[in-house]
Inverse folding.
């Protein structure tokens, strides 16, 4: 897989914003990607040095809404999340630095 296919999008939450000063970044990644592939993709895309990667599979939420014809139940997609820790001597990712 290419690096652009592995790293899908950044995850912007309060907890992920808190990690930016410590060079900890969170991404939504391809479900078939492993830690080694994610590490290489981040190093290639952002030209940084990655210390370690934590991954987790996140289950989609069940959503229920009321309509004229009754209750409709659906589910959001499952996804995989990666938390990337950069080395201390690495430069920060410019995209996230512009958010602070």
């Amino acid at each position: 897989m290419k690096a652009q296919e592995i790293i899908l999008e950044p995850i912007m939450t309060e907890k992920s914003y808190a990690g930016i000063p410590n060079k900890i970044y969170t991404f939504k990644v391809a479900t078939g990607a492993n830690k080694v592939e994610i590490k290489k993709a981040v190093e290639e895309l952002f030209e940084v040095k990655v210390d370690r990667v934590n991954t987790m599979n996140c289950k989609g939420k069940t959503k229920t809404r009321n309509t004229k014809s009754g209750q409709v139940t659906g589910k959001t997609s499952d996804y995989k999340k990666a938390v990337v820790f950069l080395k201390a001597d690495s430069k920060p990712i410019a995209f996230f630095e512009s958010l602070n």
User: Anything to note?
Assistant: The first strand starts at residue 7 and ends at 10. Helices lie at 3-6, 14-19, 35-46, 94-97. The longest helix spans residues 35-46. The chain has a mean pLDDT of 94.
